[in-house]
Automatic annotation (TrEMBL):
RNA-binding found in the keyword field: yes
Stretch list, region Disordered: 119-162
GO cellular component, one term: nucleus
Signal peptide start-end: none
Origin species: Sitophilus oryzae
The name this protein goes by in its record: Probable RNA-binding protein EIF1AD
Ranges of compositional bias, category Acidic residues: 139-151
UniProt entry keywords in alphabetical sequence: Initiation factor, Protein biosynthesis, RNA-binding
Length: 162
């Protein structure tokens, strides 16, 4: 099967079976970080952190963003890697799971707070957020009247301000 055809079938599988509720052995987890070699660090609703692996059919076709949610199946033979990714969840699937009452309560409260604060703002979760005050204060001046030569990062466009 050619690469475009395989990609088409993988994408159809992901979106076609997207609204089925998880089975008893599957769990919903939050992605914390990518550890390389198709391993991702995730957090369970209980607060436990562990690694999960991405199956070969998803590799180079579907990407996982930090802070997103995925559906996993536990694997028994792993010591460090304790799960396999079954599905990457999008906003529509998350809303469906909330309506079906299968969404974990620990993730539900965090999501409501995040949505209230940043309803219309797009946040790229794959980049670190730099929070700093770009306004100059009287504390940054020396007794000689010269400003500090330390650069500050502007949070709006992440450019170096001197």
């Amino acid at each position: 099967m050619s690469k475009p055809m395989r990609r088409k079938h993988v994408l159809l599988e992901v979106f076609r079976h997207g609204f089925s509720t998880p089975s008893e052995d599957q769990r919903i987890v939050k992605v914390l970080a990518s550890r390389g070699n198709n391993l991702h660090e995730v957090e369970d609703s209980d607060g436990s952190r562990f690694l999960v692996t991405m199956p070969t059919k998803f590799r180079r076709t579907i990407w996982i963003i930090r802070g997103g949610y995925i559906l996993i199946e536990p694997i028994q033979e792993g010591k460090k890697v304790k799960g396999k990714i079954v599905r990457i969840l999008n906003n529509e699937q998350i809303q469906h799971f909330i309506q079906e009452n299968v969404w974990p309560d620990a993730f539900l409260h965090v999501d409501k707070n995040e949505k209230e604060n940043n309803e219309d703002i797009f946040v790229n979760r794959n980049r670190p957020v730099i929070n700093s005050d770009t306004s100059s204060s009287s504390d940054s001046e020396d007794s000689s009247g010269e400003e500090d030569s330390e650069p500050e990062f502007a949070s709006r466009n992440n450019r170096l301000v001197i």
